[in-house]
Amino acid sequence: MKLLLTTIKTNNKQSNLALKYLYGVLSDAPIELELHKFGRYETSVEIYESIMDGFYDLVYMHCDRENILQIRAIAQMLKKASPDTGVMLGGMEVSFETHDFMRENPCVDYVIRGEGETVMYHFIKSVLERDYQFDKIAGLSYRNGKDIIVNPFDDPVDMSELPFPYEKTDSGKGVVYYETMRGTSDRSIHRQYLPDPRIRSLSISRVCTELRYFLSKEAEKVVFLDRWFNFNSERAYRVFEYIINNDNGKTSFEFNINGDNLDDETIRLLEDARKGQIIFNIDIGSTNAEVLGAMGRRENVYQLMYNVSKLMKAGNIDIVISIAAGLPFETESMFARSFNKAFGLADGMPIQIEQLYADKGTTLRKQAERYAYIYSDMAPYEVISGGHMSSGQLLVIRKIAKIVDAYIGDGGFKNSFPRMLNDTGVRPYELFKSLSLYIFDEGLENRLNKKENLAKILYAFAEALYKELSDAGKLEMLQDVIHGDLEELISVEDIKRFERQGWDLKKKEED
Predict the structure, then answer these.
(1) Strands (E), 100-192
(2) Euclidean distance between the first and the last CA atom of the chain, given in angstroms as a whole number
(3) Which residue of 84, 161, 164, 468 is most buried, as measured by CB atoms within 10 A?
(4) Looking at domain 170-354, which of 3.40.50.2000, 3.80.30.20, 3.30.420.40, 3.30.2140.20 is its CATH number?
(5) Which helix (H) or strand (E) holds 34?
(6) CB 335 within 8 A of CB 397
């Protein structure tokens, strides 16, 4: 039997790790096993041709909302070209509403629902032993003649029984994805989680052993997929302590954390971390109590903001703050207040505006009618409008999100915007809204991929904004600040080229 484990790369970090776990579980089976990830820019035809060249008996493709449409197209071609090749899909995208999915996609023979390691193991065992008792494999969906059988979800996987996912797949260098727990303490209505969200975690000793592996390999970054990693403050403290005490001077570690759970002892410990060694993604969601309550979060955001402000004083922890647009009961003015508070809290650190998606299996999708949500029927299921936010308002915020990401999503231009806010007295949300309108009205949205263009656009926008101040000196000072920010973002040679070209947006770039 020849089995391919594959996916198409997307922004979903979980897919990468899921294949490694499956490979580890099946690596000792008497089968010919291959693992391959296709690039996000490879066409469906190119991927189909590559798979066909492998002459596989079974092809497993891991799905998420970003690649499901392309995977469906590839599955159709595979089944038409080679009807005897088994097509199996897995991932959260196909774990819910599975019967309807298989009815609409007759090219799919099997679906693994939920956590896949145990399900895949029992499926391969059943095939190799030729008993084909698929009805006894929890978490498996399959076809029996014209019937579609959807078995109940399997019990949650005991993580301690899973092999280390990097043991047999690669060297653990570069950027690696890692998890120390399954389940989640984040019950936000738009967060997709397994049918049983109870947290199951690896022991501290195993986590430290596996982190030692990444440190010895000098991985560039270890990205923890746990949400939230610090659900248990004492456990998180011990892992942070190990990372700080065993620093190799090169590897950084990225965590999704709950700002509510940061205590003084942990903050004091983190002050000893090397600058850039630890990165925290902190999801605020909203700063409105009613919105937070409706989305399933703690309704007092002030403790979170207080904790984050204390953490930032040390200046050695990189922090990315995110808020979401279109949450239940949220109006545009309420979102603007959340953005303004988040901008002030970030104090030059990156900010991200998350868009809402009605993923299968989420409370948001199940309760869409309750909150008057309208969302796309096709993946990736973008929320189009809600009871308190029109489609037009959400479109405006989506454009603002692109501009925010371009300018400060990576911590760039961290001095320019505070200077503009101080000079003009405009609030952060209104400033970015005006900037986004200027960019899209002028047709400049396709020029945001270069830092030099961002600087020119920002200065051109400021020229019109500062006219009302009738103070040329402030505009000249802002130009110097923008130039200073740009110097930290591009090379010396690029700065020299920029200075030769000048600030004129209309002037063509040098070859």
Answers:
(1) 110-112, 140-144, 147-150, 175-178, 181-182
(2) 54
(3) 164
(4) 3.80.30.20
(5) strand 32-38
(6) yes
Cα angle: 425, vertex 428, 433; to 5 degrees: 110
Burial of 409 (0-12, 13-18, 19+ CB in 10 A): middle
Closest residue by Cα to residue 36 from 51, 25, 57, 26: 51
- Per residue in 157-175, pLDDT (tens digit) is 999 999 999 988 776 679 9
Give the pLDDT mean for 78-105.
97
510: confidence class by pLDDT, cuts 50, 70, 90:
very low
Contact 24, 165 (CB under 8 A): yes
DSSP string over 418-438 = HHHHHHH---HHHHHHHHHHH
Q: Write down the residue that tokens 């120390």 correspond to.
A: 180
Q: Give me the residue label for tokens 């990097």.
A: 166
Torsion sign, CA atoms 85, 90, 94, 97: positive
Report DSSP state, residue 382.
B
This model's pTM is above 0.85: yes
What's the chain's average pLDDT? Answer: 94
Nearest-5° angle of CA 162, CA 168, CA 171?
Answer: 120
Q: In the predicted model, is pLDDT for residue 233 greater than 80? A: yes
DSSP state of 264: H
Amino acid at 236: A
Class of domain 2-150: alpha beta
- Record the tokens describing residue 418, joined without a space: 């505070």
Give the C-alpha separation, 342 to 280, whole Å: 15
Q: Are 255 and 278 in contact, with CB atoms under 8 Å apart? A: yes
Biggest distance spanned by C-alpha atoms of the chain:
84
* pLDDT, tens only, 334-354: 999 999 999 999 888 899 999
Paired tokens of 486: 């740009």
CA distance 97 to 112: 12
DSSP 180-228: SEES-S---TT----SS---EE--HHHHHHHHHHHHHTT-SEEEE--TT
